[in-house]
Amino acid sequence: MSNKESFSWELYNRAPIVGIVRGVSMGVMRDIAKAYQRAGLHTIEITMNTPGAAQMISMLRNEFQQLNVGAGTVCNLQHYEMAVAAGAQFIVTPIIDEVVIKTAVAQEIPIFPGAYSPTEIYRAWSLGASAVKIFPASQLGVQYIKDIAAPLNDIKVLPTGGVSLENIKSFFEAGVVGVGMGSSLFNKKLIQDRDFDGLTEHFIKIKAEIGR
Questions:
Q1: Helix, strand or coil for residue 39?
Q2: Residue 45 bears catalytic tag
Q3: How far is it, in rounded angstroms, from Cα 112 to Cα 131?
Q4: CA–CA dist 46, 60 (Å, integer)
Q5: pTM assigned to the model
Q6: Any catalytic annotation for residue 133?
């Protein structure tokens, strides 16, 4: 890799949105990444159940210096090791796998493990999570984030699932440190139509909602 930098919190904080990419081709991924950078977004996650995910992560690390490139849907140590070998700068999981979390913490790689209940959220944080991915956030929404923030106010949370242009602002008003967005961010029709200028505008609108 030509880009050997570790995860940049400075880039992340400029636009605390983790864009979740699943099931796209390598060629389309390049065009998506170009639009992403043009819009001023910086943190992108390739799910490990995307065909060619490791190669895609390596390509993005080599060609896009202003992106934090991570791996998502990391459910076990094998996926973790593949992702890190490919150059992933951060790890996202849909579940709590203690071995994966502890390994990432030991190697100083930011990790956002998925959790849902207050017990799971506290467990993930106590294992050393950089922030806890509240998943799926679509089921209980912003009110759930507010409810858990009262007793667990020291825990950094990153809701994922159900975050959209229409409600992203309310999640940040509830005190989250970021959000994960998949299909609501990567508009399928715009991508299918190869309308990457339109996709850039869509990204800019979403970013504007959080005042960044």
A1: coil
A2: yes
A3: 5
A4: 10
A5: 0.95
A6: yes
